[in-house]
Design a protein that fits this description.
- The structure is a single chain.
- The protein is of the alpha/beta class.
- It folds into 2 domains: 243 residues, threonine synthase, domain 1, chain A; 126 residues, Rossmann fold (3-Layer(aba) Sandwich).
- It is globular and about 55 Å long.
C-alpha cells in the first residue's frame, strides 16, 4: 500500500501507479519499506533480481505476472546482462545505457508501461490513460519508446526548447505514432516540470498519469540496479559478504539516488552516497548547508539532464528525514512554492555532495580515457569527479559504484570537445566519435530529419489540454 508524502490516505499499488501523482500534490511512498536479503539473489540474473525487487514493492501483482512482463521489457536491451560493469581501480562504472534510447531511464521506462497495463487489468480500468511527462532530455525518448506498443495509453512529452542535446531531441521528435505528441516549451526543465504538476492539479477530470520518477513505478525499477551491483561485486570476489560499498550518482531530480536510499533501507550494505551535481548545484548546497534554494541563476551546461533547480524526488527524502511527518513536508513544500526555499537539517549522515563545472567535466572525460581507455559521457564525468573529491576528502577506499547514466553517443559533441575536436553537427560528431575511438555506432542512432513544435508557456495550458483530450478519446 502507498500514501502521499503530504497525507495518510492509503491506496493500492495499481492505483498509485495509475495516478502517478497523489491528489494532494504529494508523491507516493510505500507504507512500510520492505526488506530483501541479497543472499537470496546470488544465483539470479538481472531480470530475476528485478522481479523479486518489484514484487516487494507491488505485491498485488504475482511473481509470475511481473517476471513475464520484465522478460519482454528487457529483451530490447543490447546486452543479455541488461547492464554492464567496468573496473577503474577502486571504482566500477555501472553502465545503465544499454537500452533502446542509450540512457538509464530505459531501465524503468521499459517496465513502467507494463506495470500500468497490469494495473489497469487489476482495477478493471478501461478508459484510455494519457501520460503527461516533462523531460530534461532522457526521459522523453525512453518514455516514448516504452509506451509505443501499449494499448489504452497515450503520451505527451514536454521538453525545454534549446535545453536538450541534438541527439536527445532527435530521439523524441522523430517518434511516430497516433498515441504520442512531443512539444518544446519555451523555458527550462523546471518550467516544464512545474507546468506538469499544475496541470495534474487543475485537470482531475482527465485520465492522467506520469512517466517521471514522481511515479513510484518509475522509481522502483531503479532500486534494482543497486541490488544487482552488490550481487555482481560479491559474486566476482571484489567484496566480501556484508562489506559496505559506496554509490556515486549524478542526479538533478534526485530520483536516481533516492532509489539507492530505498535499497539501503531494504537492507543492502551501502555505506555512503555521493550526490554529484553540475553547475546547477542546488543539491550540493542543500547537503552542505541545509538550505534548499531555487532562487539562483539557471545554467545550461554540457550535462543537460542535470540542468534542474527543483528536485522533485527530494520530497520523498524529506518525508523520511522528518520521521514520516506529512505535516512537516507540507510546510516545506509550501515554503518552496511561496519563497523558493526552505531550511532542513538532514538527519542522514551518509550523504556527501559535490559539484563540477563544465570545464572540469571535459577534463575528466579525457582523464578517464587516458587512464583507463574508457569513454564516458558528461554526466558520468560529473559523477567520477565527485568520487575523486570524496576520496580525497574522506580517505575512504571502499569500493565505489559510479552510476554511468548515458552512452557517450548521446552527447558526441561534448565528448569530442574534451579531446579538442570541434564538430558543429551532432550527427557528424557521432561518426567522428566512432572513427576516433573505434566504437560501433548503436543502430538506434538513425533518425530522420524532424520538425519541432514549439509553444510558449503563456499558451501551453489550453493547448496541452486540447492535445490530452484528443488523445484521451482515441
Amino acid at each position: 500500500m502507498f500514501h502521499s508524502t503530504r497525507g495518510e490516505k492509503l491506496v493500492s499499488s495499481p492505483m498509485a501507479i495509475l495516478n502517478g501523482l497523489a491528489d494532494d500534490g504529494g508523491l507516493y511512498v510505500i507504507d512500510k519499506i520492505p526488506t530483501l536479503d541479497y543472499h537470496d539473489l546470488l544465483e539470479d540474473d538481472y531480470q530475476t533480481i528485478a522481479t523479486k525487487v518489484l514484487n516487494k514493492f507491488f505485491p498485488e501483482f504475482s511473481y509470475d505476472e511481473i517476471k513475464k512482463e520484465l522478460d519482454i521489457a528487457y529483451s530490447t536491451f543490447d546486452i543479455q546482462e541488461v547492464v554492464g560493469m567496468k573496473k577503474a581501480d577502486r571504482a566500477y562504472f555501472l553502465e545503465l545505457f544499454h537500452g533502446p534510447t542509450l540512457a538509464f531511464k530505459d531501465q524503468a521506462l521499459v517496465v513502467l508501461p507494463r506495470l500500468m497495463k497490469l494495473s489497469k487489468e487489476k482495477l478493471g480500468y478501461e478508459k484510455n490513460i494519457t501520460i503527461l511527462t516533462a523531460t530534461s532530455g532522457d526521459t522523453g525518448g525512453a518514455a516514448l519508446n516504452g509506451f509505443s506498443d501499449v494499448d489504452g495509453v497515450s503520451i505527451v512529452v514536454l521538453y525545454p526548447n534549446g535545453g536538450v542535446s541534438s541527439v536527445q531531441e532527435a530521439q523524441m521528435c522523430s517518434f511516430r505514432g497516433e498515441n504520442a505528441k512531443v512539444l518544446a516549451l519555451e523555458g527550462n526543465f523546471d518550467d516544464c516540470q512545474t507546468f506538469v504538476k499544475e496541470f495534474f492539479k487543475n485537470h482531475k477530470d482527465l485520465s492522467l498519469s506520469s512517466a517521471n520518477s514522481i511515479n513510484i513505478a518509475r522509481l522502483a525499477p531503479q532500486v534494482v540496479y543497486y541490488f544487482y551491483s552488490y550481487v555482481y561485486l560479491l559474486r566476482n570476489g571484489v567484496i566480501k559478504d556484508k562489506e559496505e560499498i559506496n554509490f556515486d550518482v549524478p542526479t538533478g531530480n534526485f530520483g536516481n539516488i533516492f532509489a539507492g536510499f530505498y535499497a539501503k533501507a531494504m537492507g543492502l550494505p551501502i555505506k555512503n552516497f555521493i550526490c554529484a551535481s553540475n553547475k546547477n548545484c542546488v543539491l550540493t548546497d542543500f547537503f552542505m548547508n541545509g538550505k534548499y534554494n531555487k532562487n539562483r541563476p539557471f545554467f545550461k551546461t554540457n550535462s543537460p539532464s542535470m540542468d534542474i533547480l527543483i528536485s522533485s524526488n527530494l520530497e520523498r527524502f524529506l518525508y523520511y528525514g522528518t520521521k514520516e511527518s506529512t505535516n512537516e513536508v507540507k510546510k516545506l513544500m509550501e515554503s518552496l512554492n511561496t519563497k523558493g526555499s526552505y531550511d532542513f537539517k538532514n538527519p542522514f549522515d551518509y550523504f556527501y555532495a559535490y559539484s563540477t563545472d563544465e570545464k572540469k567535466t571535459l577534463e575528466v572525460i579525457k582523464e578517464v580515457y587516458d587512464q583507463y581507455k574508457y569513454l564516458v559521457d558528461p554526466h558520468t564525468a560529473v559523477a567520477y569527479n565527485a568520487y575523486k573529491k570524496y576520496s580525497k576528502e574522506t580517505k575512504d577506499d571502499s569500493i565505489c559504484v559510479v552510476i554511468s547514466t548515458a552512452s557517450p553517443y548521446k552527447f558526441p559533441q561534448s565528448v569530442l570537445e574534451a579531446f579538442d575536436i570541434e564538430e558543429s553537427d551532432a550527427f557528424k560528431a557521432i561518426h567522428t566519435l566512432s572513427e576516433k575511438f573505434n566504437l560501433e555506432i548503436p543502430k538506434v542512432l538513425n533518425y530522420p530529419k524532424v520538425e519541432r513544435e514549439i509553444i510558449s508557456l503563456k499558451d501551453s495550458n489550453s493547448y496541452v489540454e486540447e492535445v490530452v483530450k484528443c488523445l484521451e478519446s482515441k
